[in-house]
Structures are given as C-alpha cells and as structure tokens.
Write a structure and sequence with these properties.
CATH superfamily of the largest domain: 2,3-Dihydroxybiphenyl 1,2-Dioxygenase, domain 1
Helix content: 10-25%
Strand order of the largest sheet: 2-3-4-1-5-8-7-6
CATH topology of the largest domain: 2,3-Dihydroxybiphenyl 1,2-Dioxygenase, domain 1
Largest sheet: 8 strands, mixed
Distance between the termini: 29 Å
Order of helices and strands: EHEEEEHEEE
Strand content: 35-45%
Structural class: alpha+beta
Number of helices: 2
CATH architecture of the largest domain: Roll
Number of domains: 2
C-alpha cells in the first residue's frame, strides 16, 4: 500500500477572498489559524486542507501533501531520482512537520510526517 495523500492547499494572493469563495461554493468550513492561512474542513471522513498566501516566488498554487515516515529520507530519495527540494523539513509547533519538492515535470508536491510536533 502506498503513502496516503493527507492534506491539500489552495494558495493565492487574496487568501481571505479564496476562503470565502470556496466556503460559499462548496460549504467548506474555514478556520483562520494564522495571518495568511486558513484551515479547511470538508465532509466528515474527507480530506481536509488549507487556503493561504503562497510563498515567495509563487503567485498561485494548488498542492497536495503525502504522508511519509521521514521527510529528510524522502527528500534524499526524491533528489536521487531527479526531483528537487523546494522546502526542507520544517516544523510548525503544535501543527505540522512538512517539506516540499519539485517533481521532474516541475510540479510542487508536499510531504508531511505523522503526528504533531511539540
């Protein structure tokens, strides 16, 4: 069995406007957790996600996150297979440990480790 997709993000310059759009169109629950990021809840048992402001050098982006046991090991393997690290392993205390890579076609994909960092 492969690694599960556990989170998605929709990123754009007006993240509050995007949150309102998706909440209005699809009934998604929106919870503001940071100045430039809102958590999204969808139907129970369905994949949740986030809507936020993109990182520097990117104006908009839709991304999904794959859960892996070790982001550092996954990024090393991805690089040896022709991918490129976009964001090293990063912890947001009390929320998530994540990283990002660019696949050989140029798509940016996220990685998350299970559990919540202290």
């Amino acid at each position: 069995m492969g690694s599960p997709i556990v989170h998605f993000e929709v990123l754009g310059p007006d993240h509050k406007g995007l949150s309102e759009f998706y909440a209005g169109q699809f009934g998604w629950g929106i919870q503001s957790v940071m100045d430039e990021y809102d958590l999204v809840t969808t139907e129970e048992g369905s994949l949740g996600g986030g809507i936020g402001t993109p990182f520097e050098g990117v104006d908009k982006l839709v991304i999904f996150y794959i859960q892996v046991p070790s982001i550092d090991e996954a990024l090393a393997s991805i690089e040896s297979a022709g991918g490129e690290t976009v964001r090293e392993r990063t912890e947001i205390p009390g929320m998530v440990t994540y990283g990002q890579f660019r696949d050989p076609a140029g798509n940016i994909i996220g990685l998350v480790e299970p559990g919540m960092p202290q």
